[in-house]
Amino acid sequence: MKQASGHALMDDFTWSDPPSRWAFAIASAGYPLLLGSAFITLVLALLGLTPLALAALVGTICIAGFFRDPDRVIPNRPGLVVSPADGRVICVERSRSDAFFDAEMTKISIFMSVFSVHINRAPVTGRIVDNFYVSGKFLDVRDERATFENERNGLVVETAAGLKLVVVQVAGLIARRIVCYPLVGQMMLQGQRYGLIRFGSRLDVYLPKVAVVQVTMGQKTVAGETILGILP
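RESULT FIELD:
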């Protein structure tokens, strides 16, 4: 059997964002909190308040861990839908309608704990044709009511083939801030960083019913790498 060349294997993957220059990259949204915590740690240390300084140092390390932003290598094959978040699949079901669509779609929900990488990545390459923000409650995101009652921000993305997907950032019990960078009309590349949620949250992804789902309940996902489904 003929062995595939190294070049062919590399063609199966791509970089949606330039690789980071740092071994432990931090998301820019985390810089204010990280620098503020580091400054407090330094002041407490200079004042000789060792127990408080150590506690502040632990807090600084936790903030750095939460906002870590590792590089990801994105599968480069037609029709793939990749996970927009690190976490665990807590819902795979048919969904008929919502405030932002009126068609039968497949809903996949991913729960991100405070220990997950919280950088969100584009599930497909496509143009943003609509977005929405809904203020709301901060229920535990493992509660299915969170989909409809919690604060959330969504994007409707249309692929080159004309298929539309919806990806929704849902704030949780601890999460109090949703960050989403793209605007309507902009293009997103599959696996590209597009936002984050602070501090424990959920991503709801709505796929066209023609998509073939590739994940199951309880499965762990890696943003930009785990394949959620395949489009025709």
